[in-house]
Amino acid sequence: MSSLAFLNIFKQRKSTPAQQGSSLDRGILVFENTSEVIRAEAILKEEGWDIRVMGPPPGIRSGCDLVIEIPLIEELNILRTLQSTGNPPLQVVPVSSPLLQPVDLFQEKDFGQHLMVRAANMKLTVDKETLTVVNVSGGGCPDVPFLAQEMVGKSLGDAPNPREIGHTLCGYALQLAYEVMKLKCSP
Amino acid sequence: MLAIVGTVPREDFPLVAGEAVLVDDGIIVNQRSVPVNRGTPALIAAAIKAGEVLGTGHPFAYLVGDTGLGHGSRHLYEYLTDRLKKASFDCIAFHYLQPDVDWHNRVLFSVEDMKRRPALVADAGFMYAAKMSGQAKAYDLFTPDAGELAFLADEEAPHPFYTRGFMLHEKDRVPELIGRAYQHGNGARCLLVKGKQDYVADQNGISALVDHPSEEAMEAMGGTGDTLTGLVAALMASGMPVKDAAVAAARANRVAGSYARPTPATQVIDIIIHIPRALEEVLSQGGHTYGQGIS
Taking the model in full, what pTM does it have? Predict the structure, then answer.
């Protein structure tokens, strides 16, 4: 092997992983029409988000012929921003697999005095008598310890809604567990 | 020495790097204190307690405040990219960080430039980024729970939130999901799957199963997975082979849990205080061989 070929292999090692992973943590906002895309782009750029407008990838069957690429992990925060300005998207999908849907399967575990609901990687546990949130567990994004800190010890009715104070997909999963728990605990 | 990289749930907590000590119910790094309740502080506290038994000293912590906005995590990623290549550690445990594939890859490159490559453990958000990047094989250990294992097994999912339903649908599919994770290149060299039963596995299959003592309430508690990751990282930093460390840590975490007599409302510090006694007990019994072997 020539020394040049060796150097090329080394160069390849340095660049390949970043290229492989470049779109895997990105998501796409789909809108009804291009005016909404342009408005959303301006709002998100104003807020400092790392986004770009692009054509829709194959597999997107709704919306107009422009979409906005976003950091998918921060979907909850981005959706909140767009909803607060009256410009919510039709849907959000992962770039890598546009047909994937948010988790819709929930596991419940009854500990007697306590009930736990799990959505994807997030678990919420409530005292069935007092309806106090006693634990939040699972998850891997940094808003999970923050959400736990804000919710544990408060009643389901008084605890902040994860949709309002969470920022990531883990926060979104906790929101789904929270909604199921509220249904389970409603009279 | 063990290094631990993670976040604390406060936006105003600055980036700190230094030896971590446990004082009462709080971790102190560079004179900054943070309570131990779950997340990376719980991981650090467990590692400190394990270090007391192993005689390996205090872990080195890289911490920053982040409540999910990602600013702190990205600041820490940038810091690590500059500094890690000049550092020397036996093991690095990456934990609650905003998953970001590009920054993950830059940090991994920095690790590869270290003079002596440490053992690498990834849990929580950093494990998500490691999977998404296609770099799982660069790690010695992942420590997923059941939901996260389904995510590792789902080659299409960019986050556990998008794990396809058929992966989550049936109970007791852990062995199958472990196989699927490795089939798609999404398993680290070793997996420690946390749950009702803790599984230790590699690409050749499940090598050990630890299921007692069993405290059902620990599943609902925040932080019990973090303490397990802290324990196994401390054992790996002491030089114990990864699979032995995984079995001993799983066992010690359960014993510490049983001493705490937990309910689903118990807080993790009540378990952490029992770690020294539990780990001594497990190691004296040959803890790494205590799991039920599976051929």
Answer: 0.88
